[in-house]
Design brief:
With 176 residues, the protein is mainly alpha-helical. About 10% of the residues have low confidence. InterPro entries: Clp_N_dom_sf. GO terms for molecular function: peptidase activity.
C-alpha cells in the first residue's frame, strides 16, 4: 500500500493534498482531531483522536454502533483520556505494528497508525470508485488495525470490533 498521506501530487502541502481527497465531513473530523491533540498536549494525532472526532461529528458513524449506550461508553472513555484513561499514551508515539514504523514521509504531527488509517480510508473509497474518503471509510480503517489505540478504546467499551468490521464491510456503498 502506498502511503498517500505522505506525498503531495498537487503542488500544495501534504495537508492540503490530503484534505482534497476527503469529504467535507471527514475533513472536519480530521481538523477536530488535530485540535484535540493540540489541546491535550499530545505530540501527534493518533487513532483515538480520530475515533473521538468521528463519534462526535458523524451520525452515520454513530449509527454503525449498537445503540446509544455503546456511544456513551465510548465517548466517556475518550473524554477521560486527558484525566486518567489514556495517560499511559501521553507523550508516546502510537505505532500499532500494523505498518512498519516510519519517520520519513508520514504526515508531520500524525502517528504512523493514524496515517495508515487515513491511507486505509482512501483505499476503501477507491475500492468503491469514490473520489473522496468518507467518515465510515475511516472508521472501517480504524477497526481493521487491532493494535491501534482506537481499537483499544472500542474494546474497553465492549464493542465487538470484528462484528463492527463485518457490518462496515457490508456497507461500502452510498457514502458519497
Amino acid at each position: 500500500m502506498q502511503n498517500r498521506t505522505a506525498y503531495n501530487s498537487g503542488g500544495g502541502s501534504p495537508r492540503e493534498d490530503l484534505e482534497t481527497r476527503l469529504t467535507v465531513e471527514l475533513a472536519s473530523v480530521v481538523s477536530a482531531a488535530r485540535r484535540r491533540a493540540t489541546r491535550d498536549g499530545d505530540r501527534q494525532v493518533d487513532t483515538a483522536h480520530l475515533l473521538h472526532g468521528l463519534l462526535e461529528s458523524d451520525p452515520s458513524v454513530r449509527a454503525a454502533f449498537d445503540g446509544g449506550a455503546q456511544i456513551a461508553r465510548l465517548l466517556g472513555y475518550l473524554v477521560q483520556r486527558s484525566i486518567g484513561y489514556g495517560l499511559q499514551w501521553h507523550g508516546t508515539v502510537e505505532d500499532s505494528g500494523a505498518v512498519p514504523m516510519v519517520t520519513e514521509g508520514v504526515v508531520p504531527g500524525w502517528s504512523p497508525a493514524a496515517a495508515a488509517a487515513l491511507d486505509g480510508a482512501l483505499d476503501r473509497a477507491h475500492a468503491r470508485y469514490a473520489t473522496h474518503a468518507a467518515c465510515l471509510d475511516l472508521l472501517a480503517a480504524l477497526v481493521n488495525d487491532p493494535e491501534s489505540r482506537a481499537v483499544e478504546v472500542l474494546r474497553r467499551a465492549a464493542v465487538d470490533t470484528e462484528q463492527l468490521a463485518a457490518r462496515l464491510d457490508g456497507d461500502r456503498s452510498g457514502q458519497e
